[in-house]
Amino acid sequence: MKILLAAINAKYIHSNLAIYSLKVYADAYLEKALDYVSQQDMEINLAEYTINQPFSHILTDIYKRSPDILCFSCYIWSMEYIEALVRELAKLLPSMSIWLGGPEVSYDAAKVLARLPQVKGVMKGEGEETFLQLCRIYGGQFHIHGLRELEGITYRDADGEIYDNPWRQAIELSELPFVYQHVEEFQNRIIYYESSRGCPFSCSYCLSSIDKRLRFRDLELVKKELQFFIDSKVLQVKFVDRTFNCKHEHATAIWRYIAEHDRGITNFHFEVAADLLNDEELKLLEGMRPGLVQLEIGVQSTNPDTIREIRRTMDFDRVRNAVSRIKRKGNIHQHLDLIAGLPFEDINSFARSFDDVYNLKPEQLQLGFLKVLKGSYMEEQKENYGLAYLSRPAYEVLFTRWLSYQDVIRLKGIEEMVEIYYNSRQFTHTLEELEKKYPSPFIMYDKLYEFYDEHDYGGLLHKRSTRYEILLEYIGEAYPKEREYFRELLTYDYYLRENAKTRPKFAGEYRIAKEEVRTFYDREERERNYLPAYGAYDRNQMRKMTHLEYFVQLGKCVLFDYKERDALSQDARTCEVEL
Q: Where is the B12-binding domain (predicted)?
């Protein structure tokens, strides 16, 4: 009996925690049931693909594997791809049983089966125990009619009739075996890890709020597993806990452990509620190595009416204080989220939310758009909200009673500008000065989007230097008298990140004579006034590893040191020098 657990990820660097968890759970507990299932007769394999792979390659690979049972893990980004695969695989392997699982099929399982007659059944919600019992049924412990008694599934019987069985009770997290024993298989990929399941909040747009039974993995197990990641020199571990700091003792124990056992390599990502962070937690975070931790904080909106309507609990003043305190320390990357399309939020309200969050200066600001998920309270209220959304994944908002489709288009353009110019962290000094020209950050990005739209620059994959040229072109039209000043700021930002061997066109003429450059590095080789960390390098090597730039408008000569970069921003160290 060959079973294949398959997932189609959005990118290669991603991995699908669900299928690994199902496999290790089934492997562990099937070993205890050898009187029912022989390990030689039950072979469970994994297959991960990406949505960027050619359809025919995935189809061919699964056909060559020819499993008896194929189980797909289904998410918004992969569902259309999986449906297409299911239809073709059923033709090629008609005797294969196809099962689906995951959030994209759990909450309308009967409709999924009606739409896809090729599918035998859907595993609803948490799948570890359900998958284990399926293995035992197909392995011969029970007659296939055992499906009728199996909780957590919706399935089609031999006559084509669909049965919707009750949902399964959630399992205890400490019963799950550790997924990453063979961590070498995840090289150059993100490690996803969970220390809790469930969510204490009831946000109307989110499926996590459906599972109200908060469960935490035993802390001693968690510490042991975190030490494994640290010892294995994993680059990043991304916790998938929905609100990591909802239990103070749990969060502080984990943060204290990784701080005390840090080896300077592994980064840990957490999704937190910033307004729940207390003084003890903030002090812990402030004491961490730069780059050890990054935080994702879902603000979504700062409109009190919107927050109340979406059943969200958030004190934005506390969020502001916590984010600002962490920002001042400068050791933690903060990623703040907004959602456009929520009830009671029109374009003006969203602009205020945007400005409120932008003014906190997070390292990343994600302007997302409401996704109306099956089974969510938001979906139930769609008529009341005048909410229209895409019929296909990702079910993204088209318009609401408060926000027109034209507004959505406008916000999409602003989102693109924020991604290019703010989230890239490549224009920080230029943007800080440019913001002073506008009543608000939202208006600045709105004007920049208008410029992109008028010149047909939007939606194109411009190379990095072209983004600088376009921004300079915009500034030249809007503020022609200050063009040269901003050109120097753009040049400063450019060299802050990149030790470019070819001078970009927008930077203009290089203003330091060759003899001055040579004299500077000759002197630096002897005296090490500005580059003390370059003791092992001669003047030619130092010249290749650094950059000198004279800024007329700024009135200074700056040395960019690419050997000593900021641990958080990766900006080069800079210092003013005398030539």
A: 1-145
What does each C-alpha distance from 183 to 77, 232, 234 come to in angstroms?
25, 8, 8
Contacts 24+ apart (CB under 8 A), 438-446: 440/351, 440/355, 441/354, 441/355, 441/358, 441/359, 442/351, 442/354, 442/355, 442/358, 442/414, 443/351, 445/414, 445/417, 445/418, 445/421, 446/410, 446/413, 446/414
Residue ranges per domain, the chain?
2-164, 173-403, 404-506, 509-579
H or E element that contains 101: strand 97-101
> Could you read off the pLDDT of 403-430 as tens digits, one per residue?
999 999 999 999 999 999 999 999 999 9
How does pLDDT run across 360-400, given as a tens digit for each residue? 999 999 999 999 998 888 999 999 999 999 999 889 999 99
Copy the structure tokens of residue 135: 């293995």
In the chain the first and final C-alpha atoms are separated, in Å, by: 75
Indicate the angle between helix axes 279-286 and 248-260, nearest 10 degrees.
Answer: 20
Kindly report the backbone phi and psi dihedral angles of residue 400, in degrees, each rounded to the nearest multiple of 5, phi listed first: -140, 180
Scored b (16 or more CB within 10 A) or e, 60-92 reads eebeeeebebbbbbbbbbbbebbbebbebbbee
Q: Are 154 and 110 in contact (CB under 8 A)?
A: yes
Mean pLDDT, rounded, for 27-41: 65
Q: How far apart are CA 427 and CA 420, in angstroms?
A: 9
Q: How many CB atoms lie within 10 A of CB 43?
A: 12
pLDDT value for 144: 57
User: CA-to-CA distance for 120 and 45, rounded, in angstroms?
Assistant: 19
d(CA 324, CA 205): 27
Residue 294 sits at φ, ψ, to 5 deg, of -130, 145
Q: Which residues contact 33 (CB under 8 A, 6 or more apart)?
A: 136, 141
Of the options 3.40.440.10, 3.90.180.10, 3.20.20.70, 1.10.3470.10, the CATH number for the domain spanning 173-403 = 3.20.20.70
CA within 13 Å, CB half, 274 = 27
Q: What are phi and psi of 462, to 5 degrees?
A: -80, 145
Helix (H, G, I), strand (E, B) or coil at 341: coil
Neighbours of 416 (CB within 10 A): 19
Two tokens, residue 511: 């203003």
Between CA 347 and CA 367 the distance in angstroms is 13
Give the DSSP letter string of 152-220. Answer: TEEEE-TTS-EEEPPPPPPPPGGGSPPS-TTGGGGTTSPEEE-SEES-S---TT-SGGG----EE--HH
Q: Residue 143: its pLDDT value, please?
A: 58
How many helices (H) and strands (E) the chain has is answered by 20, 20
Residue partners of 324: CB distance under 8 A and separation at least 6: 360
Strand ranges inside 246-379, DSSP E? 267-272, 293-300, 333-340, 364-369
% residues pLDDT > 90 (the chain): 86
Among 319, 214, 335, residue whose Cα is nearest residue 277 = 319
- Nearest one of 532, 140, 73, 37 to 28, comparing CA atoms: 37
Task: Write out the two tokens for 112.
Answer: 């999924």
What CATH topology corresponds to 2-164? Rossmann fold (3.40.50)
